[in-house]
Amino acid sequence: MRRRIKRGHHIGIICLAMVMSMSAVGVGFAAWQDGVEVKGVVATGSIEPVFVYCTVEGESAAPSRAEAFVHGGGKKISIRVQDAFPGYYAHFRYRVANLGTVPVQYETYFSCSEPGVEVVLGAPAGVIDGRGDSREGDMWLQVGSVLEDHNYSFEVGLNFRQWNAVE
Asked: Between these two residues, 147 and 70, which has the higher pLDDT value?
């Protein structure tokens, strides 16, 4: 008489053989990877937009006087008007440079808590390439209804972020 072997028994043996084979491959791969080491350096660049200068280009007659200076590591411009009177105006020119290596998109903003003092920023936003590229902008100050012979001040700052051409 012939013995009949069940079909399920062959499938079980094949599955067991495949599991053993895959285990052997895994152990061999792990042994091969044991001595492999990958090292690298990633450099992304830097972002550093700063105000380079701000000058008074023109103003109305005395007794009022305007001054501007860059401070805060080049991140802010302070504007001060001494002995202000209604109708006084001043024109300022500033330069923003990117001392970093990554192009930046910037926007200038001002903070003024004095009612009666109006500031208009010309060309307040743009894109500056890296490595010292720069852009100029203008700012106009107009004094309206204020107390005469008082000093007024405000600041101009920078909002910036990395610029991506695909956005």
From this structure: 70
